[in-house]
Amino acid sequence: MAESRKPVISVHDLAKNYGELKVLRKIDMDIYKGEVVSVIGPSGSGKSTFLRCLNYLEELTSGEIDIGGVSLKGIDEDKHNKKLNEKAAKVIRKNVGMVFQQFNLWPHKTVLENVMECPVQVKKANKEETKKKAMELLARVGMDGKADAYPTQLSGGQQQRVAIARTLAMEPEVILFDEPTSALDPEFVGEVLNVMKDLAQAGMTMIVVTHEMGFAAEVANRVCFMDGGYVIEDGTPEEVFKHPKSDRAKQFFSKIL
Ligand code: ADP
Ligand code: MG
Predict the structure, then answer these.
(1) Which ligand is nearest to the CA of 23?
(2) Is the pLDDT of residue 3 over 70?
(3) For the sheet containing 62-67, what is the strand order?
(4) Which residue's CA is the closest to the ligand 1 atom numbered 7?
(5) Which neighbouring-strand residues pair with 96?
(6) What pLDDT does 4 receive?
(7) Which of 169, 163, 99, 113 is nearest to 137 (CA)?
(8) Protein residue closest via CA to atom 22 of ligand 1
(9) How does pLDDT run across 211-228, given as a tens digit for each residue?
(10) To the nearest whole number, what is the mean pLDDT of the chain?
(11) Of 57, 61, 129, 228, which is least packed with CB atoms within 10 Å of its CB?
(12) For residue 2, is pLDDT > 50?
């Protein structure tokens, strides 16, 4: 019982500066298995930086992130932490997948090759098995019919679904999504959100930065509102959308809802 209540990700006092600019000021957050957390907030509030710290795409200035049994620590507290972080990052990247706004598929590889690349290169997985699994994942996102196509031959929605299959191929414990539908034409948003909804229902732990308030309200079981480098609201969609405590969140929702 105690084990099952251990957070998958635990963030303590996380701060991130770019020079003088304080982007994340003091973030504390525990994320548990199977939670779907929507992170919302105005542009520039630190949402992407937060996700990038979780995946060690950015160095932490101070504080600590525990994730998958290893820790990342701020380098302002001890410069040696950088070396330790780099070591921990190898474990973290296996456990934490990330899906970006711009898909980032390899343009000169087919859909199938894109999905197979990381398991074969990073995990040194068996090629035949990896291929079989990749086809299953493509079927899961409705893209098995396009296995031999190249990314440029696909719509944005299709590319993003392939990017999700590619992330799943690494069997991550958590997936971070950074505005996965923001670069899409409106007609393709729904198909990507549906894939994410299926993942959520299958029990995947997900942190989703999104402007899709409908998705946040319907699929997430937790909504975090960020502003100025702080998490100002953290609760159920009902609590945060219907009864925000802060004026900042009230103001934000009055503009977008
Ligand atoms: P959001 O995703 O909420 O829009 P970001 O995390 O991208 O916000 O950015 C937060 C702030 O940090 C912004 O002011 C942005 O200009 C700044 N910032 C982001 N990345 C960098 C960087 N690599 N160097 C300097 N400043 C950055
Ligand atoms: Mg962003």
Answers:
(1) 1
(2) no
(3) 21-31, 9-18, 62-67, 70-73
(4) 48
(5) 174
(6) 58
(7) 169
(8) 18
(9) 999 999 999 999 999 999
(10) 94
(11) 129
(12) no
- Ligand 1 centroid–CA 18 distance in Å is 8
ipTM reported for the complex, 2 dp: 0.98
- Asked if 133 and 211 touch (Cβ cutoff 8 Å), the reply is no
| Residues 229-238, mean pLDDT to the nearest whole number | 97
Q: Position of tokens 């950074």?
A: 178
Query: According to the model, what pLDDT value does residue 121 have?
Result: 85
Q: Is 48 in the pocket of ligand 1 (CB under 6 A)?
A: yes
| Residue 81 Cβ < 6 Å to ligand 1 | no
Q: Under a CB-based contact definition with an 8 Å cutoff, are residues 53 and 60 in contact? A: yes
49 close to ligand 1 (CB < 6 Angstrom): yes
78-110 confidence digits (pLDDT tens): 889 999 999 999 999 989 999 999 999 999 999
- Structure tokens that stand for 185 in this block: 């034409």
Q: Is any ligand 1 atom within 6 A of the Cβ of residue 16? A: no
Which atom of ligand 1 is found nearest the CA of 50?
6
Residue type, 30: D
Tokens linked to 12: 């303590």
Q: How far apart are CA 215 and CA 109, in angstroms?
A: 31
Of the ligands numbered here, which is closest to the C-alpha atom of 43? 1
Whether 203 lines ligand 1, by a CB cut-off of 6 Å, is no
Give the HSE-up count for residue 108: Cα atoms under 13 Å, Cβ half-sphere. Answer: 0
Question: What phi and psi, each to the nearest 5 degrees, are found at residue 104?
Answer: 55, 40
What is the model's pTM? 0.95
